[in-house]
Amino acid sequence: MTLHTFISKLNWRQVLIHFIGAWLIAHSFPLLAKLYDMKSYESLGIIAGTDVAKKKELFENGPYINIFYYFYYTEATWIIGLLVSFIISLVIAKRHKWFWVNSLIVFILLFVLKRWNISGWSFLKYIFLAPGEIFRSNMLLLLTNGLILLGLGFFVFYYKRFNDFIDGRKIAIDANAHR
Known about the structure:
Layout: H1 3-9, H2 12-33, H3 38-48, H4 52-61, H5 65-96, H6 101-115, H7 121-128, H8 138-158, H9 160-167
């Protein structure tokens, strides 16, 4: 494959749409993973109000050593969400006969942005975590927000109009729908 052929197969539309879908799915996994250990999640409120020296003591000697592991493993699920979205992107690309490198670009781009902590989550989380705020229960809050992000991610990947946009087809508006 020549360089010209390789470049001509790159599809910025697929990268854009699959980036959004993968971003949503990858950020849903840590929220849903926190449901595994609700006791540690709820203990975080106690730790948040203590000073740094006390936090260190709680983590090293106290019952809160589990919270270190809790943070580590729940945040590690982000990469699992990214891998799941990468596989979904590859399956969709194969089904539509799109170039698989576009999916790889999305994976690498999201991984690098997360590694440098510039994925945009620190700004957009206030929007995406707002729906769960209507519940008083932490479990319902995490479940609602995680499922909404996961659902939006799947929607972005599988919505027919988005896939038509990636193919470069014009999005036809049904004339009868507006009557």
